[in-house]
Design a protein that fits this description.
By secondary structure, this protein is an alpha/beta fold. The chain is built from 10 helices and 11 strands. Strands 1-11-8-7-5-6 form a 6-stranded parallel β-sheet. Strands 3-2-4 form a 3-stranded parallel β-sheet, sandwiched between helices. The longest helix is centred in the first third of the chain and has 21 residues, at 7-27.
Length: 278
Amino acid sequence: MAELIDGKRISKEIKDELRAEAEKFKAEGKEATLAVILVGDDPASAVYVNNKKKACEYIGIKSLSYELPKETTESELLELIEKLNNDDNVKGILVQLPVPDHIDENKIIRSISPLKDVDGFHPLNVGALLIGEKGYVSCTPAGVIQLLKRSNVDIAGKECVVVGRSNIVGKPMGVLLLRENGTVTIAHSKTKDLKSICKRADILVVAVGKPKMINADYVKEGAVVIDVGIHRMDNGKLCGDVDFDSVEPHVSKITPVPGGVGPMTIAMLMDNCISSLR
């Protein structure tokens, strides 16, 4: 039976460490403030924003919340971001994605100062990651690295396969694994013979966005499997991109959905906020 990688426990561990660090900074007169902007009334986005506020409260970070109507124009949103860019008290700015269709998501990402881009999405931060310079790292891939390290998975020299090539998860995930001296393959929907490529992986990270796509045929015996996907099935239950019941008997370690990667994303967002004070 595979060992479950417990994202809830590991994220709590990280948040407790950050809480202690925040207290130390407060004693030095330093405090982080995170501004969170939500445009529209998407229920899933509202839940994420609420979870981020709770995490700020737990750690001891101030949070400013801007809940804007769906009709907010792109120029109004850009104006607010510019105001927050110029506010020295605000250390981090986060616009909850997706934004309504009439707003250009890329323009919004680029308008946030790279020094306050705690999501790690700005092209300057992505470029810094690629060439190994300091900058904010996208929270989900950073969380996966912490899951592996804190579960005693040695990445150096391992064959690592990432399924998915999004700018938010797949691409930065590949770079981070490479930075830890993994040998990395990034696979995707156009990859030929995906099964045989996945079967080579000592560490398989799945961020493909298709429910239960990866089954036992895709995994090597004893591999470590990280499932980034999350989907709600017709029966109301959550599942990932990995068919957990099929894969679990064949691997050494695996993340559950929910309770695996999900909690880590917010923990690493908090880490980015605190790192603005370091």
